[in-house]
Amino acid sequence: MKTKELIEYLQGFDAESEVVVIAANPKERKKYDGEMFGITDGGQPIFCIEISNESDLNEKEIAAAVQDEREAEQE
After folding, report:
1. How far apart are CA 50 and CA 27, in angstroms?
2. Cβ neighbour number for residue 61 with a 10 Å cutoff
3. What's the Rg (C-alpha) of the chain?
4. How many CB atoms lie within 10 A of CB 49?
5. Alpha carbons 41 and 26: distance in angstroms, whole number
6. N or C, which end of the chain is more exposed by having fewer CB within 10 Å?
């Protein structure tokens, strides 16, 4: 993703809304807790997620993963 694309994407949201990043392994039905932070001296936008605590997806998350997989197969 280019910075331009990220800016265009973010313009579709309220500037005061929270940014949510989900670290997951949908095929294994796992998700991970994490803390996100930005690295500002890298010469480009860098987001880093410090991953911790693996857990299973809940039923709603599994249903969403299955739906996404079905849609991807149809493309």
Report:
1. 21
2. 15
3. 15
4. 14
5. 32
6. C
Residues constituting the chain:
75
Query: What's at 42, amino acid-wise?
Result: G
Does the model's pTM come out above 0.85? no
Calpha distance 51→22 (Å, rounded): 10
d(CA 51, CA 23): 8
pLDDT tens per residue across span 13-67: 999 999 888 899 988 999 999 999 999 998 898 999 999 999 999 999 999 999 9
Starting from the edge strand earliest in sequence, which strands make up the sheet with 30-39, in order? Answer: 23-25, 30-39, 46-56
